[in-house]
Amino acid sequence: MQRRDFIKLLMSSSLISPSLLNAGEAFTPYTGELFIVVHANGGWDISSFCDPKADPLINNWAKTQSIVNTTSQIKYAPFAKNANFFETHHQDMLVLNGIDTQTNAHNAGVRHMFSGRFDEGYPAFGALYASIKAPNLPLSYISNGAYNYTASLSNFTLMQNPTSLGNLIDTNAAPYGSAGFHHSAQNDIIKKYSAARLARAQVNTKLSPRLKKAVDSFAQASQSKEELSLLKNYLPSAENLVPIVDANDNYNPLPRQAQLTLVAMKAGLCSTADLRLDGFDTHDNHDIEHGLALSNLSDGLNFLWTEAERLGISDRLTVFVTSDFSRTPSYNDGKGKDHWPSSSAIFIKKNASWGGKVFGATDDNLGALAVDQNIVPSAGGIIIEPRHVQSALRSLAGIDQHAYSQKFNLDNSDLDLKNIFL
Fold first, then answer.
1. Of 269, 273, 267, the residue nearest 254 (C-alpha)
2. Beta carbons of 405 and 411 less than 8 angstroms apart
3. Is residue 266 part of a domain?
4. 380 close to 370: Cβ distance less than 8 angstroms
């Protein structure tokens, strides 16, 4: 078979997306622990969020307002929609401050925070988790454009709209009306000849090893279409899709991303996902622009948990939230804030024993402080780095001892953070 013929085969087939190539023949709906990674893209301002600094030179809000204490160890800045978010979830969250990302470059910061390694080559947590816990699910790892390097451990499905899943379930469905693109008899003929063409490709002994592997993978993927039909029970109708633009013309895609992810998780087709929210790289007009970004983040996370509870999967869900790095502890000439290496991370899980706690810290100038083995600030201690954070996340997920995790080892021998989850 020539390459052009193989491409025609893929295009003519009425089967499903190549993003599902890891789907296996046997399928059992996934009922294990679920993980969602949320990326506040661009570098969030922790001093106006979970590591508040009441210094008027750092934050304008500090001229008239004070840091807010919750009934747990968690504190937050009186900024944006922080009050609603933290007061709702502080008992179920753990805040880790004082993480040194060691960079102010976006690509390096993203790679470092979300893989645990500064250099290229290590997989995102989602790719690692999916490959270990649910390698045969049709939508095991859904990505919404955050760091999703897989290191060939798994594939990810890149979709940001629940209607796209509906299109995968029924490729003949027209966007309007009850009729399909093809009459049922015509559609049956297309399926028949597509299947026959695929069958011929599978027994073709002249294919190169690479094309042979692709054909076999595509044949496996075709079988997951029936599994995807489970989504029919959970996909919202067009009128019930959460809007991505509110009444004030504010664009916030995070709730829609969460809606897609949770639907797939409820159907037992997905084990992990990443969500991404832009708007945090506020070099100008920081207070207004960053206030909007943090408000969108709060709204998105609140929706995520409300929807997870409605679907009955909140007890299985852990959410990890972080960013590339943070913002400077001062405003620039454009009333913005630039890049700063210190950052934070937030873990959220309903009724977790570790909820309501804070570990790590920064000084008054947002410099990461060293901590001892109890994660208490200590001059002779160790600075928390992304490798420590990702190691802790792997441990929390129960995958830290797996061969894949060992292959992409993160050295945390100098500081093991897993005890923060006791």
1. 273
2. no
3. yes
4. yes
In Å, what is the CA distance from 422 to each residue of 32, 199, 237, 290, 374? 20, 53, 41, 34, 12
Q: What is the mean pLDDT of residues 236-256?
A: 89
CA 324 to chain centroid, in Å, comes to 13
Assigned domain for 204 exists: yes
For 345, list phi and psi in degrees, rounded to 5: -145, 150
Instruction: Calculate mean pLDDT across residues 367-385.
Output: 97
- Burial of 281-304, coded b for 16+ CB within 10 Å and e otherwise, reads bbbeebbebbbbbbbbbbbbbbbb
Residue 217: predicted pLDDT = 63
d(CA 297, CA 323): 12
Round to whole Å and give the CA distance between 400 and 410.
Answer: 9
As to burial, measured by CB atoms within 10 angstroms (0-12 exposed, 13-18 middle, 19+ buried), residue 191 is middle
Residue 21 scores a pLDDT above 80: no
Half-sphere exposure of 367 (CA within 13 A, CB side): 6
d(CA 362, CA 398): 29
For residue 48, being part of any structural domain is answered with no
Q: How far apart are the first and last CA of the chain?
A: 57
Whole-number Å distance between alpha carbons of 64 and 81: 17
Task: Enumerate residues 6+ apart whose C-beta is below 8 A from 295.
Answer: 80, 81
The pLDDT of residue 18 is above 60: no
**pLDDT reported for residue 210:** 77
Domains in the chain, number: 1
> Residue range 21-47: average pLDDT?
84
Question: Which residues span the domain enclosing 358?
Answer: 3-43+55-421
Per-residue DSSP letter, 117: -
In a domain? residue 384:
yes
Cα separation, 104 vs 43, whole angstroms:
9
